[in-house]
């Protein structure tokens, strides 16, 4: 018989570390059905028939965020055989709030008192037998980070699951509330199929809409319940939900008094001392800039690029291609097959995998910032700035991760509670150059702007500007108008992250990239190779006469207003949709170089012949801002969970990129003295349109509707 | 008065919240309940860091003006 055990706990309670420790490498990561919250499960180490289900970190079972909805639905509808409730012992009071809710579900519960080592170090004591008695569940002291107690927790959870002894909550509320609950219980008894009447009574007292929707209660009963609730509310002068919340916390403070003894001391904690500096009004931004500089210095300029150079020049330069070539010669394969394998697959996939070391170092740095607690501070200090253009500080984390790869960046938008903010962040995140766009920047900078060190920083500047402009502009549309959600974020205590959890983090993100390289990008390189090696009659020809050239010539005129209506650039842009790093490789193939360096150094001369500095920069802008690669589009699709929003998102990005690139080229060519003509007029009109969209009065339709509804 | 006008380092008791219900619920889940003593740890341009139930929570300025304290 399979046993399912759910892990539930607050964010920052060490849940992920515990999950990793319990399941080892046997993890399966997917999505919860219908929503985009990550679903992680894995078999308990050494016990294949025990499945550990990781639930998202939540503060309560009331649905404020997507994560809470998911966790609650899972616990109520799928009923795991047992719950391991992970409690951060160093923040026990707030963590117990969720515990009281979990105890009411009628599922066996065992509590893992995590980070017990921190409590001991602080000199605090927790009276475990007393706590057990007051809460009514088994408690095991643990430290997931140090691997203490985790096996015991799992073993006890399995025993509990097999014995099927449901948790019986010990906590009680004040007399008024208990009276009301008893009355409600009496009213609904036998009228629903719920086996857990107390839980139901509490939900009814809270007037929880989501729970009430699914109840088979007649109008009369509901009315009677409502009367009881109103009576209780007027007695206690608060709404049902707040009454229950207050009751839970007052029970917890009673428990705290009896079972938890904090060493008294008013000494400022290390976290407060660090916060006084890194979130300081004047120092916060400069410190953040230094941290970011270090991250990029390590991952892009030094360690990461050394590793990437090695993969590109040695592994996919001196080692693999000659070896495979010799092998193919030895077995005597056909010329076209050699070409497919060497020029198509190895050159294409190799160029992409070359980024992996750089990305892994970047992810390592970001994982460190996230795990040590600084990332939450970044969101906080950036909130004031981002709020000015319609986003929230939480939008900054996706953008930051998006500098590595847009896919995890888009996935990181999940922590944003407000749907408008989340959608706007998804749309704008990929404007920031991801690491796959760096070769395009290197190509344009190297070929057309030799010696200029401004092109690369300007690409980030263009990306940031696009995010800011889009934020202001979209916020003024009907779709996104309305109050931004307030910023509320827990700031975890600073701590040194565990090496293991960071490495797992990096591996999870890199795995997604490798998967992409071995599937989509492999297919794409084969496709590009095929289209560029054959003509419509399926004869092997030079690229000039290939299918790709024919397609390119048809779509190239679209890009004439942008200044680069030649077919090679058009084709490169299209293959860039498959993966942005393909742009460089495609130019390489089209100019007749089988294997090119990351920055395409071999064909800089060819590029100088077809582009001016201005048209090259317009090409760069368009490719940076337009629709992201297919993998990122897939991420947008799954995060938006709506075809309409996905289409809007990609359409907006492409149109925006087209407009900006047109303006840059047309205005640039006017300023550089090419006279005033139709294109210049179009450019001017587009500028006026953009400025209008930026300064017009925000649309207020939605707000009025919302007010009318209240 | 509102929490936004409390001084740094001061501990104040929450008496009311004037704002949307879902925000109120989330604040309550995080320990910002009526009668709770919260401590204003620091302030910057974005907002405040507040200690409630032993946990640091960052909130923006506008939200702080909606939390009434005594």
From TrEMBL, chain A:
Keyword Iron carried by entry: yes
Spans through the membrane: 282-299, 344-369, 389-412, 424-448, 454-474, 517-534, 546-564, 571-594, 614-636, 648-670, 676-695
Organism: Anaerocolumna xylanovorans DSM 12503
Purpose of the protein: Probable transporter of a GTP-driven Fe(2+) uptake system.
UniProt keywords, alphabetically: Cell inner membrane, Cell membrane, GTP-binding, Ion transport, Iron, Iron transport, Magnesium, Membrane, Metal-binding, Nucleotide-binding, Transmembrane, Transmembrane helix, Transport
GO cellular component term, pick one: plasma membrane
Family: Belongs to the TRAFAC class TrmE-Era-EngA-EngB-Septin-like GTPase superfamily. FeoB GTPase (TC 9.A.8) family.
Occurrences of domain FeoB-type G (ranges): 2-163
Topology within the bilayer: Multi-pass membrane protein
Subcellular locations according to the entry: Cell inner membrane; Cell membrane
GO molecular-function terms, A-Z: ferrous iron transmembrane transporter activity; GTP binding; metal ion binding
Residues that hold Mg(2+) according to the record: 20, 23-24
Keyword Signal: no
Official protein name in the record: Ferrous iron transport protein B
Binding positions (GTP): 9-16, 34-38, 54-57, 114-117
UniProtKB/TrEMBL annotation, chain B:
The Ferrous iron transporter FeoA-like domain, residue ranges: 1-70
Organism: Anaerocolumna xylanovorans DSM 12503
This protein's record includes keyword Iron: yes
Protein name: Ferrous iron transport protein A
Domain of life: Bacteria
MF terms (GO), sorted A to Z: transition metal ion binding
Pfam family, one: FeoA
Keyword presence, Nucleotidyltransferase: no
Keywords attached to this entry: Iron
Matching InterPro entries: Fe-transptr_FeoA-like (IPR007167), FeoA-like (IPR053184), FeoA_core_dom (IPR038157), Transcriptional_repressor_C (IPR008988)
